[in-house]
Amino acid sequence: MKLVLLDARTLEKDADLKIFEPFGELVRYETTSPQESASRLQGATIAITNKVKIGREVMEACPELKLICITATGTDNIDLEAAKALGIEVKNVAGYSTHSVAQHTFALVLELLTHVSYYDGFVKNDGWVQSPIFTHIDNPIREIHGKQWGIIGLGEIGKQVARIAEAFGAKVCYHSTSGKNTQGSYPHLELDALLSTCDIVSIHAPFNAKTKGLIGKKELALMKQDALLINVGRGGIVDEVALKEALEAQKIYAGFDVLAVEPMDPKAPLRSLTCKERLVLTPHVAWASVEARTTLLGLVAKNIETFLRSFHG
Which end of the chain is less congested by CB atoms within 10 angstroms, N or C? Predict the structure, then answer.
């Protein structure tokens, strides 16, 4: 049986791919362009992909393909209708990155509130050596304690963030983007109310028709002066042009791990931001702790095992 991993680079060098060897021959490619997918999947029974898109045309060109394993939770890169029609199973994974994403959420918040990078630079550039006093407080530090923290999307990651925020002494509320999850342990607020009352707002929602452009110019204008907006959900939920305007107006601070176009577009609005100190950007890495990726591969392997049991009857 042949397995093809289309974008091994998204799992990086420390990923132990030997976990797939018992299933058959594993062929790995570091990256794969859309034009290369069909040829690389020839003869494969199982395709493993993170972000490489597999559409109907590719599936029809690969008659031996029976299973597509996604090394992520989202399935938007696969034509699910075509897969169903052609008898190809599609399996994703969920819950592997809860702790990793929650931790990264606080890394962004703490950087914006405590300015660790600024103070590290101050010391390493001999600012402390030359200081006439024992400290340096030119870049004011703020606390999480006592702040109102609003969570957009109270799934497993949102709940984990809520628990940690409470441990810091924050008061937590949330908004359900689907409108279905309104029975949580925290006060549920409509979006406008949440944005206008919270000091910290973190986004943990999926990207779909209801969340596309959810936060634009009008919504950003509702936010409190110097509030923090954190997005570790999906790009496209926040209007990046409007976000740039809000940051340059000295209205809010922002910490984003996701953008509408990834990798970052050279023409991305935030790339030309003038007040860079109000924004922290990371390259869609919140999901990717070593521990999370180890768990992820284990879950993908279990998906393959389950498929093989049914495949062989």
Answer: C
In this structure, the answer to whether residues 74 and 102 fall within a common structural domain is no
Mark whether 241 and 225 lie in a shared domain: yes
What is the tally of structural domains in the chain? Answer: 2
Token readout for 128 is: 């402390």
Residue 34 sits in a domain whose CATH number is: 3.40.50.720
Q: Is 284 a catalytic residue?
A: yes
CB-based contact 231:257 (threshold 8 Å): yes
Query: 155 and 257 share a domain?
Result: yes
pLDDT string in tens for the chain (313-residue length) = 999 999 999 997 667 899 999 999 999 999 999 999 999 999 999 999 999 999 999 999 999 999 999 999 889 899 999 999 999 999 999 999 999 999 999 999 999 999 999 999 999 999 999 999 999 999 999 999 999 999 999 999 999 999 999 999 999 999 999 888 887 789 999 999 999 999 999 999 999 999 999 999 999 999 999 999 999 999 999 999 999 999 999 999 999 999 999 999 999 999 999 999 999 999 999 999 999 999 999 999 999 999 999 876 5
Answer yes or no: do 45 and 144 share one domain: no
**Catalytic residue of the set 175, 204, 284, 293:** 284
Is residue 117 domain-shared with residue 236, that is, in the same domain? yes
The residues, ordered by sequence, that sit 6+ positions from 204 with a Cβ below 8 Å of its Cβ are 101, 105, 151, 152, 153, 154, 155, 157, 158, 161, 232, 233
Verify whether residue 312 is a known catalytic residue.
no
- The single residue of 262, 271, 291, 305 carrying the catalytic annotation is 262
What whole-number distance in Å separates Cα of residue 114 and Cα of residue 144? Answer: 10
Write down the catalytic residue from 104, 115, 234, 278. Answer: 234
Same domain, 207 and 88: no
Domain limits at 33?
2-96+290-311
Beta-carbon contacts of 240 under 8 Å, excluding residues fewer than 6 positions away, are 259, 260, 268, 269, 270
pTM greater than 0.90 (yes/no): yes
Pair (35, 91) in one structural domain: yes
21 as an active site residue: the answer is: no
Q: Is the dihedral of CA 139, 141, 147, 151 positive or negative?
A: positive
